[in-house]
Amino acid sequence: MNTADETVPKAGNLRAYLLLTLTSLCWAMNAVLGKLAVGEVSPMAIVSLRWFGVVILLTIIARNHVRRDWPILRHRLGYILAMGTLGFTGFNILFYLSAHSTTAVNIGILQGSIPVFVLLGAFLALKTKVTPLQIVGVLLTITGVVIVGSGGSLQRLASFEINRGDAMMLAACVLYAGYTVALRNRPNVSALAFFTIMALAAFVTSLPFVFIEIGLERFQAPTATGWMVIAMITLFPSFIAQIAFITGVGMLGPGRAGVFVNLVPVFAAILAVTFLGEPFEMYHGVALGLVLFGIWLSEHGKPA
After folding, report:
1. Structural domain boundaries in the chain
2. H-helix or E-strand containing 33?
3. Percentage with pLDDT > 70 across the chain
4. Which site among 4, 106, 263, 301 is 20 to 30 Å from 97 CA-CA?
């Protein structure tokens, strides 16, 4: 009996690990796709069209889930709208804007800081205990983020100068960390039903930004390459990754699930160097090591 009882949680953990690893790979792919989109489609057009595509996919796949869970969902529409705006619309607007002024390697490494912001958010919002070892991990990760933001330049670091794209990506990470912490209080419904309503909220709240982009004469309709990029963004980072992430957080909790984001900078660096030919400088390696080690300390130093 003991063996059988222990097998179930272990199998469940393995499934959660695989789902969250897949999430990290898709998000790393998003950093590369964001760079490929530059000059092919404008940022607000990407955000709006990606969530429109996801809504279409989910309307086909998840309509029965939404119908079944609607009595619960309709009482939490305000919460779901806020979640979709924070974690999907806001994050992605900053993400694709940052791609215009920083590299995919930088985006990936900075995205690896999300677990630290999740830890801080859980401490502030949920009163989660933070140990001294976790504090050391946070400081190491922040050091790595600062190195990336300063481009490894002591002069820029001394003058507190940070690349605009890196600053926007860091702000995006803060938004997504808030979304991750808030997932703990999501309605007790299926991941597909919850995601469908959030994707719809993200699409609706992205539309005003499209009109702003048009008003500023910065809107660019997708080229043929742009449509291909949007299709890949819709399928992998937007659809597959989000369902896997929501399911993984539900199985492990936001703290443990957030740790898997440390795989994003690793995957992003490999993909950016391989497919974009971006250079991987010495300071990137130092920063990546600090971010990963800091997150490792945060995970192993968590309270019992």
Report:
1. 15-300
2. helix 2-37
3. 89
4. 263
